[in-house]
């Protein structure tokens, strides 16, 4: 198997494991509105791939996700691309991709779930990825 193929398979497997871990980790919190939230960011062949999902309890009337792709520049994180998705429902997901230059990146995901009595916001960060 070619070295690039092995690296691609390893990256995909690591992303899947990280997504499963983050989902289980986030579900461990006792949230009022948010049932689960998942954040995934990977870099494959110079393209950053983003995937986020938010599930809320049935009393929630609106959910939204803001995903900020950030690059480390001179030691500080700078947002280079933002994706948003929302729904007047209990579930929303978001996917996106962006061609990247060499550098260090992470994904910031901001999850919001609104009910008649409470707006709940949760922010997560993916691990840093280097391209």
Give an overview in words.
This protein is α+β, with helices and mostly antiparallel strands and 131 residues long. It has one domain: Immunoglobulins (Immunoglobulin-like), CATH 2.60.40.10. It has one helix and eight strands; from the N terminus they run αββββββββ. Strands 3, 4, 6, 7 and 8 form a five-stranded antiparallel beta sheet that branches. A three-stranded antiparallel beta sheet has the order 1-2-5. Strand 6 and strand 7 form a beta hairpin. The longest helix has 25 residues, at 3-27. It is elongated, with a radius of gyration of 16 Å.
Give a quick set of tags describing it.
alpha+beta, 3-stranded antiparallel sheet, 131 residues, 8 strands, Immunoglobulin-like
Question: Topology, please?
Answer:
Layout: H1 3-27, E1 34-44, E2 47-56, E3 62-73, E4 76-87, E5 91-99, E6 104-114, E7 119-125, E8 129-130
Antiparallel strand pairs: 1-2, 2-5, 3-4, 3-6, 6-7, 6-8
């Amino acid at each position: 198997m070619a070295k690039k193929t092995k690296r691609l398979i390893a990256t995909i497997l690591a992303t899947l494991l990280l997504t499963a871990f983050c989902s289980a980790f986030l579900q461990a919190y006792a949230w009022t509105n948010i049932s689960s939230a998942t954040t995934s960011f990977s870099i494959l062949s110079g393209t950053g791939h983003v995937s986020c999902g938010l599930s809320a309890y049935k009393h929630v009337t609106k959910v939204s996700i803001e995903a900020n792709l950030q690059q480390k520049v001179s030691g500080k994180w700078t947002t280079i691309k933002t994706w948003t998705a929302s729904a007047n429902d209990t579930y929303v997901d978001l996917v996106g991709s962006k061609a990247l230059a060499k550098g260090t990146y992470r994904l910031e995901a901001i999850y919001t779930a609104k009910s008649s009595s409470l707006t709940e916001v949760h922010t997560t960060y993916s691990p840093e990825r280097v391209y």
